[in-house]
Design goal:
Length: about 350
């Protein structure tokens, strides 16, 4: 088995980018990926935590090199985002004889365009490993200077590691699941906006930004890379909770009990199942509406932090009420709660900053 890219880890940072750039110059078309608007919550554990965890994202195969000469080596990628974070899941088929826990994967972004004299003005790279010894699974870099990257956490002033991630190997595939803010605000990361597309797409190689995914076998010294064009999803239009029509209303616990009783006695098991599915769907609709409401409330926090704090507080009460009534599942309730807490912390920081 031969591979095209044989690079040592120490050479990786030196060679990866020029190599990638030369591939761009060879007119390797980037692969388009549409990030989906997040509907189902993601647990960062390096696998499909449930069957529907990634169902709203359409996977795309990206050629990342040649496994054998003439045979494409691909990475399957799922992408989704909400207002705050980008989520990525990579799957790479890899022979068990080659597996070890020193392997990793990631994504790097370079912008605004390549300059032959000064190189890239800005760049950001996120790495995820199958090994917790890899600084807690992930690394966050910046500052590519044609020789190496630098860690955000070692910058002056220091940035943060804003990458959450986890890699696993299941005997056939490597899986890498990652989460990174669209705009961490730490000054060493990308800033991605909903509705925008990122990556080389201007027709002239090097005359635009560049977004690269890679898989990297550190011990075997193989590096595989692919250029992508990633479109960040915009929020789908939803009606506020106060305008939800009767047909969409979530069932209360009493209503569900009533439906079950009528279903069991009246129309039998088929009717009961249909209704149970509807109840499940209604719970999901309610969950999605809350997610959208919370994101909406949060989006203005830099304009009016105190109002957002009040809105989040009242949403928190609504979520708790729905959970108590049984119209939200515990898993959904936990996700909403955690999201409100995250946003609330940021809003409180903003309020502190605004204090005279
Ligand atoms: Ca997962
Ligand atoms: Ca960072
Ligand atoms: Ca960074």
């Amino acid at each position: 088995m031969k591979r095209r890219f044989f690079l040592s880890f120490s050479l990786f940072c030196i060679i990866l980018i020029p190599m990638t750039f030369s591939r761009v110059q060879a007119n390797q078309q980037p692969t388009s990926i549409l990030s989906a608007w997040l509907k189902n919550p993601v647990t960062i554990d390096g696998k499909f935590t449930s069957t529907d965890e990634w169902e709203e994202a359409t996977p795309v195969d990206v050629k990342i090199g040649e496994y054998d000469p003439g045979v494409d080596f691909t990475m399957r990628i799922w992408a989704k985002n909400d207002k705050k974070d980008l989520y990525l899941l990579y799957r790479v088929v890899y022979d068990i004889s080659l597996y070890d826990d020193a392997d990793d994967a990631g994504i790097s972004y370079f912008w605004p365009e390549y300059n032959l004299v000064t190189g890239w003005e800005n760049n950001d790279a996120s790495f995820c490993s199958v090994n917790p010894a890899y600084e807690g699974w992930t690394r966050d870099y910046y500052g590519w200077d044609e020789t190496r990257f630098y860690k955000d956490v070692e910058a002056v002033p220091p940035g943060e590691n804003n990458v959450e991630g986890r890699g696993t190997y299941d005997g056939n595939y490597y899986w890498f699941e990652m989460k990174k803010p669209l705009d961490s605000g730490d000054g060493y990361d990308w800033t991605l906006e909903p509705g925008e597309t990122y990556g080389w797409h201007e027709g002239t190689p090097g005359k635009s930004d560049s977004l690269i995914v890679y898989f990297f076998d550190e011990s075997k010294e193989f590096v595989f890379t692919g250029d992508i064009l990633l479109t960040i999803a915009q929020q789908e239009k939803t009606r506020p909770l106060s305008q939800v029509s009767i047909g969409d209303l979530p069932l209360s616990m009493e209503m569900i009990t009533g439906v079950l009783t009528i279903g069991a006695a009246g129309v039998g098991i088929a009717g009961w199942m249909t209704r149970t599915r509807r109840a499940h769907k209604r719970k999901k609709i309610l969950f999605e509406r809350f997610m959208a409401e919370i994101d909406n409330a949060y989006s203005d926090f830099k304009m009016n932090a105190r109002r957002v704090e009040a809105d989040l507080h009242s949403l928190n009460n609504e979520v708790l009420d729905e959970f108590k009534q049984g119209t939200l599942d515990e898993g959904h309730y936990n996700v909403l709660n955690e999201r409100i807490d995250d946003y609330m912390n940021e809003v409180k920081e903003q309020i502190e900053k605004e204090k005279p």
